[in-house]
Every structure is written in C-alpha cells, then in structure tokens.
Amino acid sequence: MAQSADAYDATLDAREIDGEPFGAIMDALTDLQSGETLLLINSFEPEPLYDVLEERSFTHETEQVDPEEFHIEIKHA
Fold this sequence. Notes:
Elements: E1 10-13, H1 22-31, E2 37-42, H2 47-55, E3 58-66, E4 69-76
Parallel strand pairs: 1-2
Antiparallel strand pairs: 2-4, 3-4
C-alpha cells in the first residue's frame, strides 16, 4: 500500500471525529463511486468494520504505519 493520501479519491481521518466514527465512515463509502478508493486513517485496527465492508461489497487492505495509526484502503469489490 504505502501511497500518499493524494493517491486516493477520498480520505477520512477517523482520529479527528468526536465520538463514534461509524456514521462518517458509512457516509464516505456512500459517496464513493465504483472504481474509487477511500483511505481511512484510524488510531486502531477497525476489525468490526471489516464484516460491514464485506457485506456491502467493499474490499480492504490494512497497513499499520505507527503504533497508533492504521491506514485502511477501501475499494468496491
């Protein structure tokens, strides 16, 4: 993975969201067009999100870039 944030169609840094980020993540996915990629930045690996992504026909690839920073690349399957 290891691309700059500019390489993605959309970027969402969940660390900047007060409270539960799930709604903002789902909104960002709704805005994602077929063939586009969302970079989700989070302070932990969002394992519960993976099942939701799979149910909605998205694929993901996760990379831990720092102890408290995970980059999750999300695409339409």
